[in-house]
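Researcher: I need the complex structure. Ligand is guanosine-5'-monophosphate. Inputs:
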Amino acid sequence: MSDCIFCKIIAGDIPAHKVYEDDLVLAFLDIAPITKGHTLVIPKIHQESISAVPSEYQHRILEISSKIGKAFVRTQEYDGFNLHLNNGQCAGQVVPHAHMHVVPRIGTDGFHWNWRNLEYKENEIEELLSKFNEKFSAS
Ligand code: 5GP
Ligand code: ZN
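Model: Output:
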């Protein structure tokens, strides 16, 4: 898509520090990293939602994201990594081209996910899963 910033990076019209590239995916350093080494892994086709990305691209994104995280850990600068994907504006997606965040981590990096822990009311799980099961299809 011509006005997509990540499509422009794929096309080479905007510079980026490439971490990895193959026929299906491109990985490059995030311009405003959570930790040093924070990398984005994107499919080489324009789709806003990860759900619309063909499965061979989805598989490659996960495979490469995990390999990139492992390589950063092997540098001995990090102890682990987060894989994080914002899907939809309400979920924090800003760039409308599906992308996986690989965030190398060390216990002293000072970053904390703003996690919370809700509780389910009575019957809420059954109602939720009943609606979900009506819509879920593995194919
Ligand atoms: P989102 O919030 O959509 O999941 O994340 C978008 C990410 O893209 C952000 O972490 C942001 O820093 C990064 N980003 C936005 N524009 C550019 C850019 O032009 N170049 C690079 N390398 N990263 C970008
Ligand atoms: Zn795009």
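Model: Summary of the prediction. The radius of gyration is 17 Å.
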